[in-house]
Amino acid sequence: MELASIYSVQMDYIQSLVRYEREGFVYGFYQGKTFHSVFQPIVDRLGQVLAFEGLVRIWDEHGKSINPGDYFSSMTPGDEASVIATLLCGKLHSINLAHTAYRHSKLFINVSPSVFTLLANYRQSIEHLIYRLRCLRMVSSQIIYEITEFEESDLAGILQGKAYLEQYGIKTALDDYGACYATRERAMKIRAPYLKIDRSYVGDAKFVQQAVALARRIGAKTIAEGIETREQFEMCRESGVDYFQGYWIAKPMLSQRLDQYQPLVL
C-alpha cells in the first residue's frame, strides 16, 4: 500500500478500521489490537478549557493493556504500520470529541514527522481531512498537531508541512520542550504557535521563565505539561505560562465521560 493512498478520497483505509459503539462513539481495530480515545483538558490561567489532548489506550487480542509509548516506539518511524496507527488515533479523537459537549473545543493530536509530512504534502489527503471534519461539524482551526520527536533530517519537511497546513487553518505545537530533540534552536526554527513545556521542568522556575521568554519571542503560547500539584501550577502561572495540563487539572477521561467534566475554578 502506498502511503499517499492511505488517507485519500478514493480509498479511506483508516475509516475501514473504525468500529462504532453506542451514541456515535468509536474505537479502532488494527492488527489485532483495539484503540480507544481518552481526553485530557488543557486550561487557561482561570481554569477554563482551551482544548483537549487526544490520547490513546491500547489493548491486545487477549485484553491486556499495552503502553502506548512502548507501542509506537517499537515501530520504525515512517513505516506503514506507524503511519496507519497514528492516523487512526487522530480520526478516533476527532469523531469522539465531536460527540461530546466540548465539540467546539480545540483538539491537540500527536503526529509523528512522517505522518505530518504525509498529510501536509499530499493535497488529496489534507482535503479529505477537511471534508471529514466538516462532516463532524468541526472546523480546521480546532486542530493542533503536536510535533513529536524527530531527526534533524525531518526538519525541512516539517517546516514545509507546517506552512502548508497553516493555509488550511491547522496549527502546530512543539511537544515536550526541553526534552531530547525539543531544543531552543529547534523551537526557533519551527516557530510553532504553541510551545509545550516538558513535564520534567514544570518545577524549575528558571527554566519555565526562559521558556516563556522564548515563546514570546517567537509569538507562541506556552502550555505547561504534567502539572501534578497546586504549587507547580502557581509557580508556572506566576512565571507567565498561558495554559496548563496535568493530573492536578484532570486525569485523561474516556470519551463517554467527557460531558461530566467540570472545569476547575482557579
TrEMBL record:
InterPro entries per UniProt: Cyclic-di-GMP_PDE-like, EAL_dom, EAL_sf
Domain EAL: 19-266
A GO term for molecular function: cyclic-guanylate-specific phosphodiesterase activity
PROSITE patterns associated with the record: EAL
Superkingdom: Bacteria
Alphabetical list of Pfam families matching this protein: EAL
Protein name: EAL domain-containing protein
Protein's organism: Vibrio ouci
